[in-house]
Design goal:
single chain, 108 residues, mainly alpha, 4 helices
Length: 108
C-alpha cells in the first residue's frame, strides 16, 4: 500500500484520533500539575476535531458542516485555555504552587 492509498482511507484518521484521545485521558489521569492537565484536555479536543473532520470528509455529503463544527470546537478550546490559564495564575498567586494536591483545602 502506498502513501496515496493510506491517505484515502478513513481508518488511519480514526486510529490517530483514538491515539490522541488515549494520550489525553492518560495525561489527565497522570499529570500532577494544572498546566499538564490543561494540555491533556487540549489533546482530547484535538481528537474530537480530527474525528469530526474524518467523518465529514469520507461520509458526509456537505463538506462545510464539519468544518464549521470544528471551527466552533477550536473557539471553545481557545476560550477554555484562556479561562484555565487565568484560574491557574490566580491559584498560583494564592498558594505559590500549581499542584492540585496543594489546593485540597480550598476556602469558600
Amino acid at each position: 500500500m502506498n502513501l496515496v492509498q493510506i491517505h484515502q482511507s478513513p481508518g488511519i484518521y480514526f486510529v490517530l484520533a483514538a491515539f490522541l484521545l488515549a494520550t489525553g485521558i492518560y495525561g489527565l489521569i497522570r499529570r500532577r500539575t494544572l498546566i499538564g492537565m490543561l494540555i491533556a484536555g487540549e489533546l482530547i479536543f484535538a481528537a474530537a476535531s480530527l474525528n469530526i473532520m474524518a467523518v465529514n470528509r469520507f461520509f458526509a455529503p456537505d463538506p462545510a458542516v464539519g468544518q464549521v463544527l470544528v471551527l466552533f470546537i477550536m473557539g471553545l478550546a481557545a476560550a477554555e485555555v484562556a479561562i484555565g490559564l487565568s484560574i491557574i495564575i490566580a491559584v498560583y498567586r494564592n498558594y505559590r504552587s500549581i499542584h492540585p494536591t496543594d489546593m485540597s483545602e480550598l476556602k469558600g
